[in-house]
Design goal:
Belongs to the MntP (TC 9.B.29) family. This protein is mostly helical. The chain has one domain. Helix content is 83%, strand content 0%. Helix 1 packs parallel to helix 5. The chain is globular and about 55 Å long. The model has no long low-confidence stretch (mean pLDDT 78).
Length: 184
């Protein structure tokens, strides 16, 4: 492995961790809902797959449309996180409320999509740089999967400590993260 290849691998590794930190932060809040370990494992795998698929699509589209679509994905992803967070806080106060977004079915799809939008934008810019696509995608997917599992498991532990208030805390984290995505 040459110095250039090693440098590219280290850079991609740091980028993968940075992209996965979104998934960790959001998963920390989502993990405060009651979930089984089987569900946590599935969520991590799905988030990892989305962190492979989204940058791959971005790489295919290339940098030509990066500036136009990149802004829209940030608005959509941030708005979705705000809605999920607000719904979690609302349902903590109203126990009869039907949970709008659960990390199952379409809810899991929207959850995975919202935390992987940034990797789509990164893929747009990487598509023109000639980076090793397979290595980048595997690093992005594995880092986000492990960080998602970590966030969900840590959130599950916190839920055990704080009970009902953990859902308010989790929703607040998602809401704040969504605001940060939009305005940060």
């Amino acid at each position: 492995m040459s110095i250039n290849q090693l440098g590219e691998f280290v850079s991609l590794s740091f980028m993968a961790i940075a992209l996965g930190m979104d998934a960790f932060s959001v998963s920390l809040g989502m993990g405060m809902q009651r979930m089984r370990l089987k569900r946590i494992a599935l969520i991590g795998v799905i988030i990892g797959l989305f962190h492979i698929i989204m940058p791959f699509i971005g790489m295919l589209l290339g940098q030509a449309i990066s500036e136009r679509i990149g802004y829209l994905t940030i608005i959509f992803g941030g708005s979705l996180l705000i809605i999920i967070g607000a719904q979690m806080v609302f349902s903590a106060f109203n126990r009869e409320a039907i949970k709008i977004v659960q990390p199952i079915g379409m809810g899991l799809f929207f959850f995975a999509l919202s935390v992987s939008f940034d990797s789509f934008s990164v893929g747009l810019s990487l598509g023109m740089s000639g980076v090793k696509t397979v290595i980048a995608l595997l690093l992005f997917g594995s880092a986000s999967m492990v960080l998602t599992w970590s966030g969900l498991l840590l959130g599950k532990k916190v839920h055990g400590l704080f009970g009902v208030y953990s859902e308010i805390l989790g929703g607040s984290i998602l809401f704040a993260f969504g605001l940060n995505v939009l305005f940060g």
